[in-house]
Amino acid sequence: MSVRFQDESFPILKDYLNYQQTIRQKSPKTVDEYFLDLRTFFRFMKLHRGIVSDDTPFDKILINDIDAEFLNSVTLADSFEFMNFLLRERGNNASSRARKCSSLKGFFKYIYKKKHIISSNPVEELEIPKKKKALPKYLTLEQSIELLNAVDGDNKERDYAILTLFLNCGLRVSEMSGLNYTDIRNDNTIRVLGKGNKERVIYLNSACINAINDYMRVRPVDGVKDKKALFISRNHRRISVKTIQAMVYKYLEKIGLSAQGYSCHKLRHTAATLMYQHGDVDVRVLKEVLGHENLGTTEIYTHLSSEQLKNAADSNPLANVSKRD
Fold it and tell me: Does the global pTM surpass 0.85?
């Protein structure tokens, strides 16, 4: 967790952020995002209320003097003004505004229901901006095979195993970096530590087992800093997220896909899409495989086939031909 919120925030906010990490087990990155969102709100409030002068640089506004009296003075109208400020002054898109809105609602719910610092929740009726739902980008089956066939070089066994796990198991890049060889079990399953330190168990198919076995035969042993790490970098350390990303980009570029918005996360989308479209996998099972907290996050994959059918119909050259009068 970043230490900056310890220096820049006020006691009630520090308490909330510590609660999110220790009790709710949110990741340090997520907690940092909560802090930045709420700091932006309270900086805005001090500017909006005229507590600081208009010519004060926004990023120089301190919030460490916010107290319970100030929190009790916040109104729903203030939150509407904040959302308008984010749109017009900060240029935040719907996704960014939705995240800040959620951060705001979570904080005020906490200090109202759990800490009883405020007499009512001023943002309870604040609606979260609707985000445009975009279908996830993914590789086709043919492109996935082409990507695997592109692997070569000194680390080909390692790289092939990583790509195979991405495309078959739908891991997040942080999960891939965090894998230990001790996570692989005798029943051909692997333990994955996901977001919020939530564990899940994924079954490894024969492609994954073969790829891992081939890699383990050449995996460095001498001089390895993290003895349990599954994937090792050239510096004999646990492979980092950045190294994995660079490796994936290299092979995507090799097959001509680097400039088309593909990434490690798109390989996760690919695994989910292939399982759903070609494996007849139930969406509830897919939710567990991917480690999604909500079924709604997974259900986007159920729309892919119907969307493709619609696109096929729309692309027919007769699609826009109308009957002559």
Answer: no
